[in-house]
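agent> Task received from the user: take the single chain below, predict its 3D structure, and emit C-alpha cells. No templates, no multimer pairing.
agent> Plan: (1) validate residues, (2) run structure prediction, (3) serialize to C-alpha cells, (4) report one or two observations.
agent> Step 1 OK, no nonstandard residues flagged.
tool_call: predict_structure(input=
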Amino acid sequence: MNDSIVKNIKNRVMMNRAHLHPRILDLKSDLEQGKITRRQFLKYASLIGFSAAAATGLAVIRPREVRAVTYGGKLKVSGILTSIKHPAQAKWLAPSQIFRHIAEYLTFTDTDNITRPYLLQNWETDEELRTWTLYLRKGVFFNNAHEMTADDVVFSFNQWLDQDTGSPMAAILGGYLDTTGIEKVDRYQVRLHLIRPEIALPEHLFYYPAVILNHRTFEGNFLEAPHGTGPYMLETFEEGKNCILKKRMNYWQPGLPFLNEIEFIDLGFNTAKRVKALQAGEIDVADLSGSDEGDAFQMLNKDPRIRIEPVATARVNVLRMRVDREPWQDNRVRTALKLCQYREKILLLAGMGQGHIGRDCHVFPGHPEYCQKPAIKFDPRKARSILMEAGYPDGLDVTLTIGDNRPDIHRYAEILQSDAAEAGFRISIDKISEQKYKQSFTEIDFGITLWRHYPLGTTALNLAYAADTEGAPTPMNETRWVDEEFSQLLAEANASLDLKERHRLFCKLQDIQTERGSIGIAWWQNRWTGVLKKVQGLKTHPSGYLLLDRVWVRKT
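)
tool_result: status=success, residues=556
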C-alpha cells in the first residue's frame, strides 16, 4: 500500500536532499518498516514541510475530486450573523463561517487532519522546530487587485498577537511566539523565530480567526473594507438578518468557486428552527454550530429529503473544576466526582449515542499520539469511600454552572447530578446565559465548558493545562491546574517528532491527567451538517468549518 509513497519520497530526497528536514528520512524508514501508517506519515511529514502532494503524487491543494459539477446557482445557509468588525476577534466559530469565504488561511487542515499549504506555497523548519520559514504562494491577489505579499502576513501576525486586538490567536500562538520573532525575509518569505519548539504551528495557522488581512486597507473594520483573497465577495451584511456573498470572477484558483451566490440567513440559536427551515426547503444547508447537534441529528436522521454528513471529532464537553478553590483543591474530591460519570449512559442520553467514550484526559482517540487505555468504570461506591476519606462523611454540596443554550450539556449535568447523589454529592445546577458563561468561564469554580476540535493532542493540552515561564497558569487554563511533571513531559512532546517517543510521552501525560487532573471527559462528540440532497460536494469538517468553494447544487 505504501510502495508508491516510498518511491516518491526517495525521488524527492534524491532531487533536493538539502532542503528536506532531517526527520523526513527517519519517517520514511518507519513507513518502509511498517512502524507507522500512511496517514501518520502524511500528517507529520506535512507539518515539517514535506507536502502531502509530493508524498502521494497528488497535485491539488485540497484533494477533493469532483468528476462533474453544475456551475452557478445559489445556496442558502443558516447562520448566526453577529457583527464582528475584526476577524481575529471572533471568540467562537459562527462568525467565521462568513469571512472564511472572503478571506483565507495560510494553511488548510483537511478532514483527515492532514495540514497542507494554502496561501503558502510551502514551509520549512529547522531540526529543533524553532525556526520556521514560510514561503508565500505568488500571484495571489486580494479582491481589490492588491497582491498578497509578506507585508500582509507580517501585519496579520502582529494583529493576532497584539493584546489590544484581543484575539484567540494570542492564546494559540502566544506561548511560543511574540512579535519580535516575526521577520520579513523578502516579498514572498516570512521567518518565525519561536520562543520554544512547536510542532503544531502549521495547524495553528488554520485556526478560525487566522485569516490573512490586506495591510493596505484594513483599519479595524473588515465589513467596511472586506478585502480578502477568497472565492467570494461581500455583497450585503445585515446583523441578525442575512448576508449575501457573490462569486469572485478572478479568484486565484481557476475554476472555483462553483456557486454564483451564497446567502446566510440568521435563524438564531434554536435548533428546531434551523431543522424546520431545512425540512421546508427554506435553506439548503443547516449550519449546526452553536446549536445542539444531537437534537438535530435525531430530527433529521430519518428524513429521506435530507443527507446527514457526520464526522468524528475531538470536540468535547469538559467537566472542569478549579483546583485553587475548595473543595476542588483536594484531588480526592475530584477523583470521587469523576468516578460518578456513567459514561455509556451519558453518551447515549446526552450524546445521542454518537461519539466515543472519554477517560478524563484531553486527548482524543483519533489523535495520532493517543495511547490506548482501559475504560474507567462508573463506581459511586468507591467514590463515596474516597469522599469520606477526604473529610466529607456526610457528603458534599456543590454548584455546577452551565450555559443555557446547549441541551446536551444540560442533560450531561442532570445525569451527573442524579448518579453522583449515591456517592454523597448534592449537585445544584445553575444555568446562566451562554454569553455570560463564555465571558466568565475561566472564573467559574465548577462547570462544563465546550472545547473545540484540535487535530493534534498537544494543542488543547498547551492551551488549557499549561503554565507560563513563571509557573503560573496560562490565561486559557480555566481550572488553574499546573503539574510540574505534566508540564515537563508536554514540553518534550511539543519538541518531539519521533512517533514512538511521542506515544511514550502521551501514555504518561494521559495517566497523569486522568489520575490527578482537574477535568472529567465522559464522551467525545461527533459533528454533523444537515443538507438537502441536491447539495453536492459538502463534507463536514471536524472543526465545524463550512467550506463552500467546492459545493454545487444539482439541478432537480
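agent> Step 4: summary for the user.
Residues 499-516 form the longest helix (18 residues).
agent> Done.
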